[in-house]
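Figure-free illustration: sequence to structure, shown twice.
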Amino acid sequence: MNFWERITGSDLTREWKAFEARAQALPADHQAAWGQIKTHLFPYGDFTGRGLLPILDAALGLLEEASAHGLSVREVLGDDIPGFCAALAGGEGARTYRDRWREQLNRNVARKLGRLGG
């Protein structure tokens, strides 16, 4: 990946299209699970989502393996897809982008108030 691809995000677009092409080859219930996984994993990403690519690749690979072996989504992921995604992202209580932004805002406000009060 060169500098221009990294700045424009064209490498992410290419990878994302490859993920979606792989997902289209899955059975309908596995495709629906892929949609839920994407929805529940995005809050754990950073601004670009670049850090999520290996996790999304692994999750899609798991769905592909399950499909190849004739396993249902429920047999592989269980009934709690949001919990599965939280575990993939670092366990229960993993920080989402909202948490990181909230902490940054609180630090900035505290720093400003410290300057005003002192």
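We now fold a second protein in the same way, so the two outputs can be compared directly.
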Amino acid sequence: MLTSFGKFCRKLRIDNGELLKDMAKKLDVTSSYLSAVENGKRNVPQSWVSEISSKYALDLEQRIELKNAAEESQISNKLDLKDLNSRDKNLMMALARKINGMNDEEKVIIKNLLNKKK
């Protein structure tokens, strides 16, 4: 299934008269790898947002849209827990385990707590 990132890239290619292989060449990857990223089988490499923004001379609004699409399309995310104490590690893992079972109201409460200014 085409991700938000994939839809953005497809539109970008169409607007620039390019094929998947043309964008893949610009990103120095194979067409099959780019396709896997666009279809949510692989994560969007972190460097791609800036590379695509630069190579396609995206304006600020397009860069923001691309960044949001890339973040939304991530299938996994690695968290570095090595500098956290065990209580904080447990908190992170509890949230990861429970997030799918939470309703929208609970998620909003947690998000508001996290965004609360000190």
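Summary for the second example: The chain has a mean pLDDT of 93.
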